[in-house]
Every structure is written in C-alpha cells, then in structure tokens.
Amino acid sequence: MDPNKPPYLPRPPGVPDVPVARGRGLHADESLLGRARGLGVSADEPSVGRARGLAVVLEEPWVGRARGLARIADEPSVGRARGLARIADEPSVGRARGLARIADEPSVGRARGLARIADEPSVGRARGLAVVLEEPWVGRARGLARIADEPSVGRARGLARIADEPSVGRARGLAVVLEEPWVGRARGLARIADEPSVGRALGLAQIADEPSVGRARGLAVALEEPWVALAEPVAGTGRGLASTALDALLFPYVRGSPGLGRYKPLSVAQGMEEEEGGRIGRARGLLHTSQEPVAGKGRSTALFLKESEPLGKSEHVDTSEVIPCLQEEEPPKVQADDPGPGSFLLSMFRGMGIEQGRPWGRGAATLGRGAVGEHKDVQSVVPPVVSAASEAGDAHYYAGGFAGRGLSGVGKAVGFPAGRGSGAPLIPKEIPVTPAVRPPKAEPKMEAGGKPLQKVGTMGHPVSIASNYVPIRCRNEAVFQYHVVFTPNVESVSMRFGMMKDHRSTTGDIMAFDGSILYLPKRLEEVVHLKAERKTDNREIDIKIQMTKILPPHSDLCIPFYNVVLRRVMKILGLNLIGRNHYDPRSAVVLSKHRLQVWPGYSTAIKHTDGGLYLAVDISHKVLRNDSVLDVMNEIYQQSRESFKDECTKELIGSIVITRYNNRTYRIDDIEWDKSPKHSFTMADGSETTFVDYYRKNYGITVKELDQPLLVHRPKERSKPGGKVITGEILILPELSFMTGIPEKMKKDFRAMKDLTMHINVSVEQHTHSLKQLLHNISTSQEAVKELSRWGLEISSDILVTQGRTLPMETICLQSATFVTSPTVDWSREVVRDSSISCIPLDRWVVFYPRRAADQAEELVSTFGKVAGPMGLRLARPVCVELRDDRTETYVKTIQSQLSSEPNVQLVVCIVTGNRDDLYSAIKKLCCVQSPCPSQVINVRTISQPQKLRSVAQKILLQMNCKLGGELWTVHVPLKHLMVIGVDVHHDTSKKTQSVMGFVASLNSLMTKWYSRVTFQMPNEEIINGFRVCLLAALQKYYEVNHSFPEKIVIYRDGVSDGQLKTVELYEIPQILKCFETFPNYEPKLVFIVVQKRINTTLYAFGGNRFGTPPPGTVLDHTVTNGEWVDFFLMAHSIRQGCGFPTHYISIYNTANLTPDHLQRLTFKMCHLYWNWPGTIRVPAPCKYAHKLAYLSAQFLHSEPAIQLCDKLYFL
Fold first, then answer.
1. Which end of the chain is more exposed for a tag (fewer CB within 10 A), N or C?
2. What pLDDT band is residue 984 in, cutting at 50, 70 and 90?
3. pLDDT, tens digit (0-9, with 9 covering 90-100), for 465-522
4. Which residues of 1166-1189 are buried (b: 16+ CB within 10 A; e: fewer)?
5. Phi/psi of residue 90, each to 5°?
6. In what helix (H) or strand (E) does residue 176 lie, and over which residues does it extend?
7. What is the pLDDT of residues 335-361, one digit of tens each?
8. How many CB atoms lie within 10 A of CB 112?
C-alpha cells in the first residue's frame, strides 16, 4: 500500500450512499449539496454551493481557507478569497474579496474588485478595474475601464455590457454576456446560455451545460453526474459531519437520517421524489469527494475506523492506548430539546458536552495544510472522554488528527473525514476526543500575563561580561504630567514660558514645558489656578494647571527629560557639546605632522532596557584639522586654477565643518560665490550689519580675507512647540570654519593612519579608565549631583558587570577537509592549503597592464601558476595585453576591443598604477554594465613586494574564483529549505538624493550560491518597492536551482534605526508577506532581523578584577537589551586592537518559531561565510555582500549592473 495515500475503504455490502441532511433538499439522480434559498439548476455538471463549508474536487485536492468556493478541473486552487475563484488550467492564488477568473495564467492579488487576464498574471490591490493583455497590471484604481475587445474588470454600480469578451464586475445592476462566461456579484439577475455562471447573486442563476459555482442562496440541482462519497477522507470547514461509506463500519445506516441533527424531512417539489438512500437538504457541512481528499479548516472531529492504519508520531500528541471500536448496534434515538423545525439536535460541540467557552483550535495533532503532502508520523494519545448531552447516552468522537492548517503536513495520508459539525453524532460510546492544538503564530511582544519576552538563550559557555552601561537609580516615585490652559488664549509660546517662569514658587525650579504640556518631578494639586499679566496689553491671564498623568520614573516619556538633565551635567563638567557628543578641548592631542587635532570626549544617553534605567556612555574622539576651509580653497586654487570652482564644489560640498568661536558643526550644502564678508544681512532685531562688523562686535574676531566667498548651510526644517516651522539658510565664513574628519588622502596614507589610530583606538584598559574617570567627576561635583537630584536621579560609580555566553566554535567545510576554527577564528592557512568546495576552470582570461608594470604583471601570472594547484584551481595561460599608457581612455578602448573580438572571455584582470577612482569606475562600468564580464582590478603597489607576492596571489585567486561562480567554504546549517537574505542601503555619490539598495539571497542549502540585485530609489520612495521586485526574482531563481521554494526565509536588514522599527514591522513586513501570494499554495515561514552596527554598546571580558577583550562568539541577550523586542548583542569577530564593539540584532518578526538559541547560532554561522576574509566578520555574510554591492553601484557604477552577473559575486 502506498504510504502517501489513505487506505481505500470500500463500502460495506448493503449500505447505500446516504448523504446527511439538515433541511429541505431535492434528490433525483444526483446528490444535491447546497444551502440555496433560491433555485439553481445544472444539467450535466455537479452544482457546488457554499452550504457553510462545501468543497468539491474531481481529480485534484482543494486546499484553502477561502470563505467562498473554489472549483477546479485539473489543478488545485489555493487561496483565501472571500469571493469565488474558478480556474481552467492553472491554479488561482489570492486573497481577493472579489472574483478572479483566469484562462491560462494564475491570477494573484488582493483586489477587492475583479481581475481577469488573458495571458499574464494580474497582481494588485485595486478597488477598481484592471485589464491586462500581455503584461501584469498593478494598481489600486477606483475608476472604471471599458474595453471592446478585452475583458472589463471593475466594480461598477451601473451596467457593464460587452459583446465578444466576458464582463467581470460587481454591478448592482444587470450584466449580460453573449459568448463568454459572466462572473460577478450582482444583486440582480444573471442568465447565461453556454458558459458557467459564477456569482453571489441573491436572485436566480440558471445554467445549461456548465457547472454552477457560487454562493447563491438558492437551490442547486444536479441531474446526471454522480456525486457521492466512496472511500476517501473528507476534511473541510463544514459545520456538519462528513460521512463516507467506510470499511469496517460497525453500525448500520438508518434510512432517513444516519448523521447529525437538526434534520427535519420536508416535502419535495412535484416530480422530484426521494431516492433510496435518504434525503439530502440543508446540511451545514456535507463534504463528499469522489477520488481525492479535501483538506481544509475543520474545527470538528472525525470518525475513526476500526481497520484503518495507525497514526504515526507527532510532537503535539502522545497516544498510548488503542482506540475503542465502534459498537455494532442500533443508533439510539434522540429526543428533541423542544419542538420546532431545525431543533432536533444541538450543535456538535454542545452535543459532545463542550460549551463555547472552551473553544477548539484550528486542528489537534496538526496534520498540515495540504491534501497532497507527505505523511508525517503522528503519535497517538489517550484523549479525554467527553459525554454527549443527549438522551441517547454518551456519544463520543475521536479526532484522529485534524487535516487543517497545522504544523506538519499530512495531506492524503489522512484516513478519516473531518468536518465542522453543528449536531451531535448518533454513534455508539467510547470514542475519545483529543484536545485541540492551536497553529503556530507570530511571536507576540509580551507573553501571557504580561511576562517579558522569551529572549534569553542557553547554548554556549557562561562568561562574565562588563559593559559600558551604568545603572541609574531614580528616587522619585513618579513624574507628574499636567495640562496647562491659558484663558484668554496666549498665542506666543515664548510669552507662555515667561508666564510659567514667574510662578516658580509654585512649580519649582526644575520643569519641562512645551507650551501646553508640563512635566514636574513634584506633585501639585489636582487643579491649580494662577494669575499672570500679558505685558503687551496688560490683560490678566488665568493659567489653569490640571494633572493628567502620573508617569512611573522608568517611563519612556521621562527619558527625554533625563537626557536634558544629563546634558546640563556634562556642561557643568566643562565639556563642549559638538553635534550630539561632548568633548574636552582642554585635553586635545595635536598631531603637528599631519596638521590634525584629536579632541577626546563622550557620547552619552540614558536608556530604558530590560534591566531598568541605564546610562550608556562611550568614548568618542573628534578629529579636527588645523586647516580652515579657506586654506583648502587656496590649495585647490594652486593646483587647478582653470576649474577652481568645480573642484571646490566637489571637495567641499557635503563636508562637515566646525566654527571654533561657538564650537558648532555645520554641513556645507552650497557655496555663494557672489557674496563676501562685506555684504550685509538683517539681524533678529531688524537692524542690518555686515559680516565683518558682526564678528568684530560679537566675538572680537577680525576678518582678514574680505573677498572670500561664503559657505551655505541649509538646516532641516524643524518645528517649534508652537507649531512654527523654522527654515532658512546659514552663511558661514570659510576663514572661520575648520574641516573635520580624516582627509581622503590621509585615509590612503598607511603611516598617517597608524599614527592617528594610536590615539583613537584606545585599549580596553584605557577605555574603562576613561569611563570610570567620568563617573568619578560626576560623583565628586556637588553641582552635578544637585542637578541630578532635582529629578531624583543617582548615577552609580561602577559600570555594569553581568553574565554572558560564548557560542560554540563552528566547523569549516572545504571540498575534502573540515576543521574547527581556532580561538582567533582565522583559517587563512587552511583555505589555501586545501581545495575549495568548487573551482571554476579558468581557460579564457585576459590581463591588461601598462608598459611600466610589465615586469610585475609577468611575475604575478607566474606566481598564479605556482599557487593554483594546491588550491584546486586550474589556470590556462592568459592573454597578456600591454597598454601604451595608463590613461582611462586607453584601458576602456582596449578592453572593449578585446571583449568584442573574443566574446567568451571569462575574466578581465587589470593592473593599474595609483589610486585612481576615475579609472576604477570606468573599468567597472564597462565590465559590470556595458559588457558584462567578471573583472579584477589590481594595484601595482600591491604586487610590488616579492616577499608578499605569494600570499597576495593566493588571496587574489580566491577572489577570482568567487567572481567566476566558485564556492570556497561553508559551515553546517541544519535548517533545510532555507533562504537567507541580506539587505543594505547606500547613498549614490553622483546624485545626492538617490539611494541604492543591495540585495543578496542564498540559493542552496550549503549557502554557497548567491543571487544579487540592485535597485535605485528616491528619498521619498519606500525601500519595499524595490525589495519586492528583488524578492520575487530571488524566489524564482531559487526554484530554478532547487525545483522547490524555500520553506523558511531569514532576512537580515541593515540600515534601520530604532525609530524605524515600528515602520518596518507595520509596513514592510506585510508587503513582503503579500509577495508570497504570487506563487500558488506558498506560505513560507519568515524571520525578519534588523542589523545595527553603529551603536554605542561596548562589551568587555571581566575576570580577576581586570577588563579584557571578549572572545569571538560572545553574546549578551539580557539586561541591556530592548524590552519591546527579541534582541541580542553578538560579537562574532576577533578583536586585535581596541575594544569589542558588538552588533545589535533585533528580531521583529518570527513565524518560523526559531528560538533565541537558533537565531543566535544561525547569525554566528552566517558571520563565517564572507569569502573575502578567511575569518569571521562583524555582520552576517549576506549583509556584507549587500553592502559591497550597494557601495560599488553607488560609488562607481551609478546604474544597475547587468542581469547576466546576478548569480556571481562579481562585486567582491
């Protein structure tokens, strides 16, 4: 017997096919199923209606959760539509509330209207009309569309009439079609001659030759086609009992009503006498099938057979006894509760002794969602026996597993019917009932009872971890919120502030006031009335202060006030606020050789975490240049006088400058070449003055250069408490502005960067010493302590020490070698000593080099041949092309000519001189966009040291193999059918307002095949728009490779701040879930994790009263984590110098039910798979790949790469 199919159960001899009736019904030659109140007749085909749960399938299973009906000829229909879906050859997948009819292709959407397509799918959410000929239509139109030769789709309330094509609509009027089917929801009449009628009409629907599928409240009669139950299981959403002719059924059928209650025989129409087998009428759950099972959403139970196969194992139930057989005896008669039609029995649950207060789930011993899935073992249990509430004695049911939306798919292996009955079963005793098991849901924010989220893992070794978080104790019981009303109204916010300050004797010295809401650390009376005088007209103003809220001291609304208090404390300590951080110019380090200054300082923030209130304080350094902007402009003028203005614009626009006279930073947005310090401007009091006079009077500064242009800073629009929007421009003098940050030239100077990092990357001991020094300064400053005590705050003098874990080390897998990573997580030696997983033979490749680099090029090619063998690479001799010079045009023309003459070139290698971004950009544009071909650019300086050439050549070969599609190494990921996606965003340098999204997705279970895409978007455009396109393409590619779709998808999304988490959860994730509806019967489990690199959290290993660097794999998932999400801090990389800065991971969506241990281990594994570095990195490899791709496209390509390269890591 095939284990994937249910056992065939023949009908016992002498037992007729008797359906179960609930109301009135007609039965001539065929069984009638329906709940129609009108009349519907079908001549040659069965009629299927929605008698609250009817589903009919001929050859294929029907799986869904639709509230409507779906009838299929050859293919399954999968959906959740509330309307109707009828399909000829292809499946219909959707969630539409309307109707969808398709000829050759699937219709996918969520439209509330109707969508009909000829050749291509329609995807949308339109409430209006959508018509598509050959391409998909996506929209949300509310208008109407009428077409002569094409279908009309809409929701018109008028009339829609088409001659040659079908009319699809929702008109409240009439719709007539001559030759094509009519699909609608009209409340009028619809009559069709030769084609089926599908609708929800309250009127009449009459069909000649085709089946009627709908939701009509009329009657439907089938004349010639049989429609009875044979021996297959039935599982659906009916409220009745699904009855089949079952093998080994030990109680006989009773002519009339062998099923469940509320049955009352009614007279039938003339000429339609009852057949032998009983009556079929208004049952609320008759589910029959001919050849295939129907699996749905049963909330009821199922008859279990004596001779059926035993169930397997399941994680939800545990059966230890044999289920008692049905007794061969007459079914007992049941007394009606009270006379009257339809009250012969109570509902099924009440008939079983179960009240509505004890709801059943969507399935017990969940057996999957599909009727075609593989049989999963389900353990059996001794379920509780539930007595029936009827005079017939105890009638019990055995639910041998619900064929519904459960965890483990069973499909055809279900050997029993499952319904949703409303009556009591007339069957003998001792059939137990299993308790329901609810299906998995998305992880809630809080567990039942208000307990914290389960976010703490257990795997790994415990380790003592210190952090840069300082506990804060709040002595105040609460913070009090008041609403302030001024009568008569005072429009000026500044005047309101003045009036409140005049009453400090009442409110106290410390308060937070925005013009209408007042926060105080002290409690006032419930209502306080104060008097003030408006100075403009000497009118008396009544001020009413009324208490509205009492906030706990740890409330998120209190955090902004605490941070304001902390800012005052830092000012008391003599620190200057620059940007958002505080710096000490008195301790500045001057690097005269490089004309730089380094100001030490702190970044501080008070946060509310899982452990309470903490001060997060980190060490920060501000790099200032001794060169003013005017000095930089003079230097540019000496180098390029002809293009002076263009070069200045290129160098300065976007830079951050600081004005030393007030220690404020500004971003340069433009340069006013037509203005100078001699120009005048209007001050706040209305007087006019020149820039020269302004700086002399206010700051005592004499401006030396009178002809310099002015720098323009355009601050972001911001609103004052009164609603006034502040806009305008700020003009700055280049002579008084100083550049910040590290110059680009210095970033390429190794020695200069080494000198600078000595002062910036401090050791763990220096880091913790600076933190403790700040805490000491606060505790010993009486003024600082007094300022904190006003709000009841007290900052501890020690940093936080808690318990963390180190995750187990991973095993790296090569082609024929595996090894556990070392404590330093570095396998650079092993990866060049053994063969990679797969190596692409390099037979046709070209090396381009300038004449002066000929020797280095020849030596590099020779070294390639020596080191390729042990690595498993096979290299042919390349074509070497010597260039007459190193101009950009020479490279581009020569490469283009070579690619045109030899179109089968696998790889282009270019050796360049110097760090020239223009040359690099030109080569990458040519090889990534115009003539797609993987390319490798090598700086001649990199290969000029003979002692390092071998090591450099090995690394270059690994990178070249990646770009050709080779696979280097992997780790074991136990999750099967998994896709991991990385997303990152970068800003385009050529178009400041444009952003680039990099998208990289895995294509196989080894995580060695990757699919990459790039999308460009404008500032106001949501990232999800481009993400949707990339995700659908990645799923299609995954299907091509694996012949199936991934069951679990994990998305690592970089570039999301804390303030954007809710937006991602409420907007982006629903859009992603909607993408899955594109594919038939596809609902993967989704995990969405936000990756945050730019955080101020620092971790230290703590032992023996000393602080050190934590080992790779250190994870902290409590105390300092966010109370609203499942999050954790992971430091996957090895720290060679400085402190350990972990990465923050926030799981904002998880339907795969991955535990915190699963999330942490999977993330740690992904940090091993970045093939550009034989070690772990700070973020998961898909995120790093997406960053590299977005960076390449934004910095150099400025356009989307060619689609031919999407399955290769060409951007490494």
1. N
2. very high
3. 999 999 999 888 888 889 999 988 887 787 888 888 888 888 887 777 878 888 888 8
4. bbbbbbbebbbbbbbbbbbbbbbb
5. -125, 160
6. strand 175-177
7. 333 434 333 333 343 444 444 443 333
8. 17
Cβ pair 681, 689 in contact under 8 A: yes
Residues 6+ apart with CB under 8 A from 448: none
Pick 266 or 799 by higher pLDDT.
Answer: 799
Helix (H, G, I), strand (E, B) or coil at 692: helix
Residue 1096 per-residue DSSP state: -
Contact 124, 116 (CB under 8 A): no
∠298-304-305 over CA atoms, to 5°?
145
> Which H or E run contains 1108?
strand 1106-1108
pLDDT for residue 1180 is more than 50: yes
Structure tokens belonging to residue 546: 């009324």
- Per-residue pLDDT band at 255 (split at 50, 70, 90): very low
pTM of the model: 0.63
Angle, CA 812 vertex, CA 806 and CA 814 arms, to 5°: 175
- Asked if residue 144 has pLDDT above 80, the reply is no
With CA atoms as reference, report the closest residue to 414 among 236, 547, 212, 636. 236
Buried/exposed code over 275-301 (b: 16+ C-beta within 10 A; e: otherwise): bebbbbbbbbbbbbbbebbbbbbbbbb
Q: Do 947 and 1015 contact (CB within 8 A), yes or no?
A: no
Q: How far apart are CA 606 and CA 164, in angstroms?
A: 70
SS3 content of the chain, % helix, strand, coil (to 5): 20, 25, 55
Determine if the peptide bond prior to 488 is cis (ω within 30°). Answer: yes
Q: What is the pLDDT of residue 989?
A: 57
Structural domains of the chain sorted by starting position, each given as residue range(s) with its CATH number in brackets: 1-18+228-259+284-439 (no CATH), 32-226 (no CATH), 479-551 (3.30.70), 839-966 (3.40.50.2300), 974-1086+1147-1205 (3.30.420.10)
What pLDDT, on the 0 to 100 scale, is given for residue 1123? Answer: 86
CB 485 within 8 A of CB 546: yes
DSSP state letters, 1041-1063: HHSS--SEEEEEEES--GGGHHH
Q: How many CB atoms lie within 10 A of CB 156?
A: 22
What is the per-residue pLDDT for 461?
94
Q: How far is CA 797 from the centre of its chain?
A: 41
Question: Mean pLDDT across the chain, nearest whole number?
Answer: 70
Which token pair is 687? 């007087």
pLDDT of 646 above 70: yes
Buried b (16+ CB within 10 A) or exposed e, 964-986: bbbbbbbbebebeebbbbbbbbb
Pairwise CA distance, residues 373 & 880, whole Å: 57
- Helical pair 629-639 and 644-652, crossing angle rounded to 10 deg: 140
Contact 821, 969 (CB under 8 A): no
Question: Distance between alpha carbon 111 and the CA centroid of its chain, in Å?
Answer: 23
Rg (CA), the chain: 38
Taking alpha carbons only, the member of 1182, 688, 756, 1164 closest to residue 984 is 1182
Q: Report, as residue numbers or ranges, the catalytic residues.
A: 984, 1022, 1054, 1187
DSSP 356: T
Both tokens assigned to 631:
């000095």
Residue 345: strand, helix, or coil: coil
**Max Cα–Cα distance, the chain, nearest Å:** 115
β pairing state of 589-591 and 1099-1103: unpaired
Q: What is the DSSP string of 211-230?
A: --EE--SS-EEE-SS-----
- Range scoring the smallest mean pLDDT among 433-447, 561-575, 623-637, 1053-1067: 433-447
Stretch 945-971: mean pLDDT: 93
CA distances from 1177 to 129, 337, 675, 752, 970 (A): 50, 72, 49, 25, 14
